[in-house]
Amino acid sequence: MVAFKVTDGERGGWTVLQVSGEMDLVTSPELRQRVHGAVAEGRHRIVLDLSEVVFCDSSGVGVLIATRRLLRSCQGRLRLILPAQGIADNAHAHHVNRVLGALGVRRLFDVYADLATAADEAAVPLTAPTHV
Question: What is the pTM of this model?
Fold first, then answer.
């Protein structure tokens, strides 16, 4: 079993929550709580760095969708970090992209390859893959 961990940080006016391990029914509530805590503190620009997530089930996807909804309700912004296939031998990050694509929700998110671009206001999000 891979340990689940969420680490807080800041970058360029964005709150960065770096997530590692498995996002599943057991661990997803912790991420939801961390996001709600950040929003309650007035932090409405959040980057979720999912580059170290090795597994994501439907409950993890549910937290991502709920986070998007929460931030939109308070005029906030959400960006995800999901390295593209083949970047830095990060095959597990590609898994999350595939899960989001398979469920038809990948297009809902602004996705970036790394923290530098996610925190850059001028950066353009990656386009969603056309196949799963």
Answer: 0.89
